[in-house]
Every structure is written in structure tokens, then in C-alpha cells.
């Protein structure tokens, strides 16, 4: 049972009564008359062959309030795109697939690159960015939700709770972030959030004071969750990171553009499990190794824009401060796990903390070596200014692909 605590920075929607999904959906159908809802699903083709997305689509078939489902499809050739069309054809809602590797979208990407506006690397950030552009071009959704396609414990109640705070016509929230406990198979998961982000934010506060931005981020119960909903106009002005810093980057952008009174978080589920990333200790370009590097750099860049000065000595102090706080948290997590009958491998936890600590220093050195790095994909506001008709041509390209035109 969730508690009812409000920390005063952003509003927290709890799951106090386990309200039936049908009751939430009935209200959302009414809300949809004034605020139609679109859902973005960023997906790799390989996820169509796994168990999670199959179950997600079956759940989505029963959702009555969605005006549109937009699927971003990565790493797919033409045959795989045609397979994806059949795979998603069972959805009763209007749905469109962005074939990101197809010739039409590749041509638009090349045009963006000529203007210095193209996403610099493939990945979830690029996928979400193109989907956001299509949603704006289609203009069918006043509220836009997004979640990953590898959720093994998915049910449609998660989506209803995610949309509700932003879709309600008498609420003024512009952005909603989901949270949940990361528990599966008798184990406590969520290592990057528990062992890296939380102690890092507290270490930064200890060194630089309780900056409003740090207080804001630390108020999110699970800042790395991949589930959020927002008003469609919020998509206009945010710059989406292209790397693993996507979730932190989005939180930073909505904090920059909107009052915290218009931001909230919601308890989505009692249990949540998805595809687990390997630690990849020997490969800094993959897994939790890469993720921790990108998240640290995203935080450093944001703090620099707020006047925080970094140095090599400061990053060494940050590493030491973080390490002590993270070890203390491992103790607390272990005790919590024992009381709840969950497994927690303290050796593996401490090895992860050692890797994250080393990466805080590595990310700091990368930041100092390249302070002019531009990791963000430009906002769609900027794209429209540079290429006024690109959104309409993106819409036409997606429509042509989905009609099966060669």
C-alpha cells in the first residue's frame, strides 16, 4: 500500500485504494473529448519477437480512450517493417509506424543533417524525437504519453494512471512521471537509480548546497522510469538527449520550461519488471556502464548552465563523497530487502558502486575535455523555424509508408 506523503516540490499521486481500471478508463473516455490522448511506443524490431511487446499490444487492444498510437520502429529492413505492420494491425485505435530506417525518413534525416539539426546518433532519444514530431504534425493528441516496449509486467491500468493527472480537464498539470518498485523474481532491482542517481544527487547537494534543481530531481521517486505523459505543447520546446541521459534530460527540460506546480508523479504499479541491462564492466559503450556515464554527463551539463563550476579536484571529491553515501545506502537496501524476504547480492551491489564511482570521474574528465559538446537534439520549435514544412513532409512520409507505397 502506497503512503500519502507530499514533499511539497511536485505533486505525488498515490495508489491509495486500488481503484478499478474500468472506473479510471470510463473517466478517461470523458476526458478524451476535451483532451484526446496519443501514445508513443519507441521500439526496436527485436522487441516484436519477445514476450513483452506481444502482451503490451494485447492490453492496448482493450484501451478505449486512445485517439492514436504512434510506434517508432528502429533497426528494421523493409521485410521487417512489413512484418511490423501486420503485428500492430490488431490495434483497434488509429495507429502509425515510423519506419526510421526506411528511405523516406532517411531522406528527411539527411535534410536535417544538412542544416545541422539531425540527431547525432541512433537510439531511443532519436526514435522518441521523430515520434514527437509526427504527433505534432498529426495534431490528434492534446496529451501525449510514452512508455517502453520491454515491460514484462504490463497491464492497461499502468497507462490509465499515467494519463489521468494530465488528461483531467480540471487539473493543471502539464507533465507527469511514473514510478513503481523495481522488484522481480524475489530480487530488488533498479540498480542505477538506487545506487548511482540517488547517492549522486545527495553528494552534489552536500558539495554545492540544496540547489533548487537538485532538490527537484531528488523529489522524483524513480527519475529513470521510461513512462511519462505531457501536454502536446510541452513537446514543442524540449530538447531531447540522444544518449542514455534521456530520462534525466527530459526532467531537466520540463523543469527549465515549466513551474514545478505543473509537474507531478504517479504510482503506476505494485511491481514492475522489464529487460535488464547487463553491467558491462569491460565495455564502456554498453549496458549500465554506458548508462551511468551518460547520466553523469547530463547532470554535469545541466548544473554548469546554472552556474556550478567544476574542476578536476572537485570531481575527485565528488567521487569520494558519492562512494561513502552509496555504501551507506547499500546497507539500508540490504536491511529493507531482508525484512521483505527479498534477495540482494551485496557483493554485486558494491561492485556496481565501484564502477559508478569510477564513471563519475570519467564523465567529469570528458566534460572538462569537451565543454562545448552538444548532446541534445534540437527542439521541434527550432526545426520549424529552419525548415517550416518539414513536419508536414514527415507526416506525409509516414502516411505513405503505412499505406505500403514503395
UniProtKB/TrEMBL annotation:
Question: Could you give a GO molecular-function term held by this entry?
Answer: transferase activity
The cross-references to SUPFAM superfamilies, in alphabetical order and at most eight, read: Nucleotide-diphospho-sugar transferases (SSF53448)
Q: Which UniProt keywords apply?
A: Transferase
Q: What is this protein called?
A: Glycosyl transferase
Q: Native species of this protein? A: Halomonas alkalicola
Amino acid at each position: 500500500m502506497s503512503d500519502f506523503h507530499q514533499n511539497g516540490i511536485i505533486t505525488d499521486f498515490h495508489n491509495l485504494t486500488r481503484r478499478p481500471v474500468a472506473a479510471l478508463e470510463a473517466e478517461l473516455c470523458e476526458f478524451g473529448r476535451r483532451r484526446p490522448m496519443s501514445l508513443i511506443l519507441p521500439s526496436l524490431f527485436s522487441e516484436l519477437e519477445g514476450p513483452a511487446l506481444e502482451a503490451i499490444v494485447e492490453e492496448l487492444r482493450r484501451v478505449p480512450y486512445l485517439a492514436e498510437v504512434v510506434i517508432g520502429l528502429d533497426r528494421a529492413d523493409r521485410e521487417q517493417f512489413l512484418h511490423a505492420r501486420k503485428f500492430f494491425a490488431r490495434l483497434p485505435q488509429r495507429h502509425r509506424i515510423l519506419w526510421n530506417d526506411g528511405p523516406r525518413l532517411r531522406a528527411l534525416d539527411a535534410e536535417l543533417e544538412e542544416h545541422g539539426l539531425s540527431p547525432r546518433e541512433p537510439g531511443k532519444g532519436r526514435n522518441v524525437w521523430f515520434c514527437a514530431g509526427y504527433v505534432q504534425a498529426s495534431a490528434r493528441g492534446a496529451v501525449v504519453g510514452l512508455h517502453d516496449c520491454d515491460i514484462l509486467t504490463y497491464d492497461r491500468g499502468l497507462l490509465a494512471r499515467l494519463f489521468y493527472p494530465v488528461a483531467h480537464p480540471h487539473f493543471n498539470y502539464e507533465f507527469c512521471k511514473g514510478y513503481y518498485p523495481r522488484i522481480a523474481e524475489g530480487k530488488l532491482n533498479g540498480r542505477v537509480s538506487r545506487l548511482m542517481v540517488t547517492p549522486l544527487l545527495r553528494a552534489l547537494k552536500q558539495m554545492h548546497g540544496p540547489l533548487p534543481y537538485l532538490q527537484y530531481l531528488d523529489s522524483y521517486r524513480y527519475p529513470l522510469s521510461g513512462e511519462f505523459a505531457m501536454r502536446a505543447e510541452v513537446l514543442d520546446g524540449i530538447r531531447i538527449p540522444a544518449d542514455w541521459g534521456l530520462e534525466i534530460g527530459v526532467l531537466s527540460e520540463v523543469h527549465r520550461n515549466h513551474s514545478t506546480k505543473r509537474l507531478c508523479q504517479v504510482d503506476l504499479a505494485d511491481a514492475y519488471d522489464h529487460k535488464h541491462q547487463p553491467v558491462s564492466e569491460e565495455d564502456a559503450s554498453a549496458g549500465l556502464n554506458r548508462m551511468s556515464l551518460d547520466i553523469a554527463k547530463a547532470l554535469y551539463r545541466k548544473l554548469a548552465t546554472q552556474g556550478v563550476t567544476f574542476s578536476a579536484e572537485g570531481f575527485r571529491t565528488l567521487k569520494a563523497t558519492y562512494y561513502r553515501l552509496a555504501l551507506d545506502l547499500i546497507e539500508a537496501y540490504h536491511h529493507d530487502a531482508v525484512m521483505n524476504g527479498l534477495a540482494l547480492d551485496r557483493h554485486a551491489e558494491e561492485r556496481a558502486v565501484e564502477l559508478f564511482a569510477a564513471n563519475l570521474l570519467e564523465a567529469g574528465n570528458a566534460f572538462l575535455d569537451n565543454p562545448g559538446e552538444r548532446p541534445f537534439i534540437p527542439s521541434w520549435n527550432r526545426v520549424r523555424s529552419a525548415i517550416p514544412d518539414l513536419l508536414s513532409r514527415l507526416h506525409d512520409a509516414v502516411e505513405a509508408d503505412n499505406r505500403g507505397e514503395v
